[in-house]
Amino acid sequence: MNSVIASDLYRHRGLKGTLGLLKGLSYPGFRYTYLLRKVSQSRQKFIASCFYKVLLRRYRYKYGFEINPDAKIEDGFYLTSHCSSVIIGPITMGKNCNVSHSVTIGRGIAGERKGRPTLGDDVWIGPGSIIVGKIVIGNDVLIAPNTFVNFDVPDHSIVIGSPGKIIAKENPTKDYIHYKV
Asked: Are 18 and 72 in contact (CB under 8 A)?
């Protein structure tokens, strides 16, 4: 098992090793993340790539997760195991990020925010949140449930509401992000 998959596995209740992998594969969020990483890693191997893409598509329909394989997601990604729509385009996301159910992260199609978001390290995204446009979400940011974000967010902040309001707070993700890598 490579280090990226091992770090994603560890984020699911501290699981490690082969037995941890077998248990982790019983969680829909980790299973989808595992296949997403395998698709990204096997691009040069045609048969393996096709196999993992077919499985990824199957789980996309089964669980409602849809993450673009071109998304640059660093180590320690945690995708909730609550099966509900999660849509993530080809974005850039830092380490130790949590994505809850019913989340959309995508591109803005017009205006000054046309483009895709960039998320820093240690970002927790609550259920029902929407993040769109060419924006930068800083490190150690908590995005509260049902929040709409289409503006830059500084480090060490909480974003709440629709339209979102930024509240500066030291270590806002402390009790939300567990088993950091």
From this structure: no
pTM of the model: 0.93
Q: Which residues lie across from 85 on neighbouring strands? A: none
Which residue ranges make up each domain of the chain? 3-168
Question: What is the architecture, at CATH level 2, of domain 3-168?
Answer: 3 Solenoid (2.160)
pLDDT digits 0-9 by tens, 86-120: 999 999 999 999 999 999 999 999 889 999 999 99
Residues 6+ apart with CB under 8 A from 76: 7, 8, 10, 11, 95, 96, 97, 180, 181
| Residue 18 CB partners (closer than 8 Å, separation 6+) | 1
CA–CA distance, 98 with 101 (Å, rounded to integer): 10
Amino acid found at 82: H
